[in-house]
Amino acid sequence: MSVLFALVTAALALHARHSAQQSLKHQLLNQIPEAVNASLVNAYDTPLQLAHNSQQLMSHINATAFNAYLPLDFIQQITLRDLTLFVQQPPQAADVLWHYGEQLLGANYTIAVQFAWFNLLGVSVLLSMLLLTLYRYLPTIRTQRTHQWQSDLVQTGLNKKQAHKLARQLSADPNESELFAFLRDRTQREPDVIHGLSQQEAVKALTSEQREWLAAALNLDLAEEDALTVARHPPQLTFDLANQCVLVHGLRITLAKTPLFYYYWYAQRRSAGEPAYTNPTQAKPDRDQGQQLANIMANWGGHQKAIKDLCEEGLKSKTLDQNRNKIKTELRRALGELATPYLFSGERDAKTARYRYCLALTPNAISLNPKQP
C-alpha cells in the first residue's frame, strides 16, 4: 500500500506541475510578446531594453492569480523565479519564441511550485484504495489465466489445492507457462515434473527445434539430463551395429537387423559421396551391390536367409523398397516429423525412368562408427 501510495502521489504531483507549466506558458505567450514589442518601438539598445523588461514582467506575472489554471487545486502557488528575454540566436533554446519584425525574440524562465499537500495527499489516498480494490476484487487477465490453468490442471489429475498453487505460478510467468504447455502437450510426464523442467534455465534456453527433441527423448523414457543432452546434440546420424541401433541426434533407436544393415549400406554410399542409387530392374537384380550388402550382414550377425538371398539373387528393387519403408516406419514411430531429415530423398531417373534414392543427410552429418565387438 505504501509503495502504491507513493507512486500515485508522485504521478499526481508530476501531472499537476506539468499542467501548471503548460498553463503558465500559454499565459506568457499571451502577455509577453505584446508588452515586449511595444517597449521596443523606440528602444535604442534592444538587449538592454529586454533585460529591463524581464524584471518588470516577472513582477507583474507573479502578482497575477493562477487559480484558473491550477489542476484540481493540487498547486497552491506558482512563482516565476527567473525570466530572461533575449534576441534568439539559433541554435539557442527558448521556452517561448515570437517574432518582432525580422527578429526572433525568446524567453526562458524557471518556476517554483508550492503544492497544496492536503488536497494532493487526500486524492492520492482515495485513488490508491480504489486501485487496490480493483486489483483484489475485479477480474484481471492474470486471474483469468489462473482460473484457466487451474481448470486444465485439475483435468490432468491434480487436486484443487495443487492445481491452484501451480496455476498461480504459471500465470505469473508467460514464458514459463508457454514452455509448460508445450511439454504438457508433447509428453506424458506428470505436471510437477513438467513444471520443474519449465523452470530450468537450460531448458528455457533451448530453441524451438531443440524443445521438440527434448520432448521426443522424454517420450522414449530418457532421464531429464539425458533428454536435455539429446536436445542439444548436433544433427548427426551415428551407427552402432554391435548393439543393433542408430543414434539419431544423439537419441538411441533400435532397429531390426535387416533394415539396419540396409540403412548402413545407404549411409556408406552417402558418406563416400556416391550418387543416389537407382533401383535395379526386376529382371536384373544388382549382384555386385548385393554381395557388398551381404558382406556387411555377415560381418555383423545378419540373418542367414537374407545373406543367402543377396548372394544368390542379388539386390532387388522390391527388397530395397521394403526395407526403406521399414526404416521410415520405425523412425517415424520414435521421432514423428523429426525423423524427416534422417530418411531418404528420391527422384525418378530421367534415363531409366526408375527411382533412385539416397539419404537426405549431408555426408559430414553421418558417422560410420559400427563399433566392432
Pick out the low-confidence regions.
67-71
Strand order of the largest sheet: 6-5-4-10
Mean pLDDT: 82
Query: Helical residue percent?
Result: 55-70%
Radius of gyration: 41 Å
Given the C-alpha coordinates, what overall shape results?
elongated
Q: How large is the count of helical segments?
A: 14
Total domains = 3
The structural class is alpha+beta
State the end-to-end CA separation. Answer: 72 Å
Strand content: 15-25%
How many β strands by DSSP? 10
- Quick one: biggest sheet? 4 strands, mixed
* Helix-strand sequence: HHEEEHHHHHHHHEEEHEHHHEEE
Plain-language structure description:
The protein has 3 domains: 2-123, no CATH class; 142-232, no CATH class; 237-367, no CATH class. It is built from 14 helices and 10 strands. The chain has helices at residues 2-39, 46-62, 117-137, 141-155, 160-172, 174-186, 191-199, 201-204, 208-219, 224-232, 257-271, 287-299, 304-313, 317-335; strands spanning 75-87, 96-100, 103-115, 237-240, 245-248, 251-254, 277-278, 344-348, 355-359, 366-367. A 4-stranded mixed sheet has the order 6-5-4-10, with helices on one face. A hairpin with a 6-residue loop joins strand 8 (344-348) and strand 9. Helix 5 packs across helix 6, helix 6 (174-186) crosses helix 7 and helix 12 (287-299) packs antiparallel against helix 13.
